[in-house]
Amino acid sequence: MAELSPSRRIRRTPFSARVEVAGVKAYTVYNRMLLPTVFESTEADYHHLKKAVQVWDVACERQVELRGPDASRLMQMLTPRDLRDVAPGRCVYVPIVDETGGMLNDPVAVKLAEDRWWISIADSDLLLWAKGICNGYHLDVLVDEPDVNLLAVQGPKAEDLMERLFGAAVREVKFFRFGEFHFQGRAMNIARSGYSKQGGFEIYAEGADIAMPLWDALFEAGRDLDVRAGCPNLIERIEGGLLSYGNDMTDNNTPHECGLGKLCDTHAAMGCIGRDALLRVAKEGPVQQIRPLEIAGDPVPLCDRAWPLMAGDKRVGQVTSTIWSPDFGVNVAIGMVRMTHWDPGTRLQVETPEGLRDVTVRESFWA
Amino acid sequence: MAELSPSRRIRRTPFSARVEVAGVKAYTVYNRMLLPTVFESTEADYHHLKKAVQVWDVACERQVELRGPDASRLMQMLTPRDLRDVAPGRCVYVPIVDETGGMLNDPVAVKLAEDRWWISIADSDLLLWAKGICNGYHLDVLVDEPDVNLLAVQGPKAEDLMERLFGAAVREVKFFRFGEFHFQGRAMNIARSGYSKQGGFEIYAEGADIAMPLWDALFEAGRDLDVRAGCPNLIERIEGGLLSYGNDMTDNNTPHECGLGKLCDTHAAMGCIGRDALLRVAKEGPVQQIRPLEIAGDPVPLCDRAWPLMAGDKRVGQVTSTIWSPDFGVNVAIGMVRMTHWDPGTRLQVETPEGLRDVTVRESFWA
């Protein structure tokens, strides 16, 4: 692996100083911001995440704030998911599509009030799309990136740790709901969500000045819980089938290809910019779709480009995320497969940088 | 420095395989794509760039293509520079602004025809802004990212090398003009441009399949010219005062603050989205502006966040790019300074991670 050159353009987060002290070994860049990828090692981080609790600097999940009388109208223009029944206090996972139905992002949208949303974005400048649409349609909405920095607390002991800081009420927060809690006199929204299948919370910390005190308090309170600095873990997320925008799908893909067709209420989502394009897909279904895949043999290298998925001489898809799973003893993978070959049990081959490997299409993800 | 974790989301370029063979030591991420930053060392790369010729993989300068009857109208909506007199065959450096006059990008726009532009972008998803505006105003333009990959040939021997591949006519291409040339039977636009002050060209290679043959041919032809793989060099670009979007300016800054006021024909640029906001700035001038700065003493560390610029206890600006210049024997720097303290010769102090340093505002950049 090569080094990452520091510059202001690759933005630090308000937690970066603590992340460095915790011994971060590698980063990726996400929304032009640092996102840690490895502390001890990907495997050691993974084992720890599954049994204890970790604090993740995911400030790179930047917020796009929509505020104003037309905020909910703009939000509905961005997504084919029907948002009419979403009450304030709820989080919704929403595919965002352009006029062709191509995925621009797959954020979690947080409805703060009828006239106010935070969109917690994956890795693409959704801010610019939302601003452009807002301007072009002359909507009465302020579209902005607020000074909100996400800290995730993930792992089986996440509830125990969070209770010590925020009280027992935090245990009552249901999945994909959020509540307002207080820390050092400051209100902050805490949602039961996060980019792992181990359970946990995401704290929407407003104001960079509160970031380090919050980090420090979590580590102070969780010492006996073996709390450690962590980050989204490649093994755990592939086992759990958590998709990664830019890796597993791009603007070339429709939500239906990404297995998000069930989130598309294309008929009802009046105003959605990609609605016309998606109506046909909704009727006929996609011709390729994301599938869990198992790659045979020894651990494969990291997947830094799409690996062709072959049925004999015919290309029938591609692998975009893969890694060796210690717990399952196989290479777990995510790929896009054409409908002719996507049935569970289908045997294919993948062209890895180290040669051809056997692949089996699975029924479901591992976790 | 930490390592950069590979993933498909951080896109490789069609030249990446050659860049690796050439011994790249570090990268940055630019438009979600790999951009090499160091080969031998920043200093060794710099000395070589100033005396020989380098080939740079700058495919990360992605193109936003505007094509269709309203292409020139959309282009004018994006920028306060008056584009009415720009003829096909010309490149123009254009500030791109949002409705508040904030800089969204500072690309080179290439006018291919009356109804067709390529915008060669700095590090922000201008594609999404242009698509959003196009959609909102119902313009008749196709906005897309074509499969065009830029290869820069930079350095005092760039002309000699280019002539060997493209013939003597390439010497006739004037600064910020381009011409159509042929390589292995394929037409490609070649502009006299590039992100250095050493002279050279940028080749707009269309189609990923032509990338490696082009790279190999340049190295084959330039063996006796000591051609090497290179990249935008931090020392050389600061000496030359080449601004970096995301480092020296962000969407918080107007073009006038970036010293680009002379490119803003705000009265004439009818249709420019940020026109109203910029009319006042154009009249009154900015209250802060980018300046060349000299930092006293030994080499300073790399600048990975804004360093406060102080006049006594008062913050009067910030330093955003700096490095030791071997040729000038000082720390060269770029910063934003308030008008009360921006006159050449003004003495200030900067808070570096290693303590306070004396700073002098300079009259002009070094090169």
Automatic annotation (TrEMBL), chains A, B:
What is the official name of this protein in its record? Dimethylsulfonioproprionate demethylase DmdA
Broad enzyme group: transferase
Query: What lineage, starting at the top, does this entry show?
Result: Bacteria, Pseudomonadati, Pseudomonadota, Alphaproteobacteria, Rhodobacterales
What is the E.C. number? 2.1.1.269
**Alphabetized Pfam families for the sequence:** GCV_T, GCV_T_C
The residue ranges of the GCVT N-terminal domain are: 23-266
Per the UniProt record, the source organism is Sulfitobacter dubius
Alphabetically ordered keywords of this record: Methyltransferase, Transferase
> Could you tell me the superkingdom of the organism this chain comes from?
Bacteria
Which segments constitute the Aminomethyltransferase C-terminal domain? 292-362
- Any transmembrane segments, and where? none
Q: Which GO terms describe its molecular function?
A: methyltransferase activity
Question: Mind listing the GO biological process terms from this record?
Answer: methylation
